[in-house]
């Protein structure tokens, strides 16, 4: 999911430590291997020619940032995540049979796309005006809200960031999560926020009583509670975080080079079909996404 202005978020911290650890040396080796097989998109007339080139070669290279649940290589060495699984389906329907992962750091995704290290960013990247100045986006495939991990029954009645400022309850969040910025914006002192490595550490802090709540995105929170089998904690209802009194919408999609509007538009056509039929939710459901994360927002709206 990315962060409010200048803050690196979690969606799962889109914002999950919202941007991510790589699979080390193997990833760097893959980057080196792909650098010499770049597909030129120099012909930008009439929306670019990358789609026809990809169809001819039969493979599209997807930039990922090693972040669960957005795009990552799992413990079995398989390439997966909500965005890659969507891409596998759509590109097959566009006549491109194979997808090839190109892992990199999140901050390198847009530079890597623009320098043709890969063809598409497939990392659940948040769509915001700053990024829209550098790349073009598909319409978003998800919209994420925030949630808290709290003790069973939510004894301190914590439902939004303002509740911490009023009650003095102890809030925890992840290192570089945008949720820290949201809390500070709501009146919580940054020095009072417990900063932890990730959402698992947050769950343990709440279970052990060292924190009253851990803030993350709803997808992050649900995933860690489910995976841990936590019996002493629960997730609060998702809510929309505010920044300077306005909703800070975390909605992510696929990024393309600015000249490749033909590819982006063809991708959008298939994405909209999947949304309408419910196929999109069936694909991303195993990664913790629910109907609440589905959205009809457009890239155009988010780019404003």
Q: Give the strand content.
A: 15-25%
Whole-number mean pLDDT: 86
Give the distance, in angstroms, between the N- and C-terminal Cα atoms: 18 Å
Reading the helices and strands in chain order gives HHEEEHEHEHEEEHEHEHEHEEEEHHH
Please give a structural write-up.
By secondary structure, this protein is α/β, with parallel strands linked by helices. Helices cover 34% and strands 20% of the residues. The strands form 4 sheets. Strands 1, 4, 5, 6, 7 and 15 form a 6-stranded mixed beta sheet that branches. The radius of gyration is 19 Å and the shape is elongated. 47% of the residues are buried. Keywords: Signal. It holds the Pfam family SBP_bac_3. This is Ectoine/hydroxyectoine ABC transporter substrate-binding protein EhuB. InterPro entries: Ectoine_EhuB, Solute-binding_3/MltF_N, TAT_signal.
